[in-house]
Amino acid sequence: MPITDLYAAPVTAPETSESRFDRVLIQGTSGSGKTTLSEALAKVLGVERLELDGLYHQPDWTPLDVDEFRERVAAFAAQPAWVVDGNYSQVRNILWPRATMIALIDLPRRVVMTRIIKRTVLRIVRRERLWNDNRESWRNALSRDPQRNIVVWSWTTHSKYHETVPREARESVGAERVVVLSRARDVRRFLDAASRGE
Q: Which domains does the chain have, with CATH numbers?
């Protein structure tokens, strides 16, 4: 099937009898806290978790073939319960319709930038191993190219996840399945609600 057809392929919408925490997709700009929330949420719910960055970025930061990326995401999303974090447009039409809830982390830019700068510097200094043995580097951190510099990427995409993505998500799946977490305490309350099964 051509990739353009795959992008258009419909995915079955959630049943009305399902819990809103059955399949949660967490999105937001880099440094907003997607991974931290998804790890905690998956633990609370007792479900499997998929981090899209970890799947997409193969060794030496080589991107996974888009068709394979979509196939593997679709296979994971077919499960009855899960938590996924990540923003890839290539799999949006797979995950958005399937998710019982889309949680968008929309913290203030100053908060996100403080987090992403600190995280990036620590990862470089500690030579922290990321997905598939990849590491962040000073060369990328000093680049002005948002495709290489995660800090610049976060700065340039912040407004997208503040305005455009929440609007598109509501238009796509309905406002009742979209939650925007705009403060740290919203994130904590969200996790508390999940632990209580609300």
A: 3-12+19-196 (3.40.50.300)
Which stretches does DSSP call E strand in 79-170?
Answer: 82-85, 101-105
Q: For the segment 139-192, what is each residue's pLDDT rounded down to a tens digit?
A: 988 889 888 889 999 999 999 999 999 999 999 999 999 999 999 999 999 999
**Which tokens go with 99?**
């998710």
d(CA 65, CA 71): 10
Beta strand 82-85 with 49-51 is: parallel
Q: Measured between alpha carbons, how far is 198 from 194 in angstroms, rounded to an integer? A: 6
pTM for the full predicted model: 0.87
What Rg value do the Cα atoms of the chain yield, rounded? 17
Show the CA angle centred on residue 71, arms to residues 77 and 134, nearest 5°. 95
Angle, CA 65 vertex, CA 3 and CA 36 arms, to 5°: 110
Sheet holding 23-27, edge to edge: 49-51, 82-85, 23-27, 101-105, 178-181
CA distances from 52 to 62, 171, 177, 198 (A): 14, 23, 21, 26
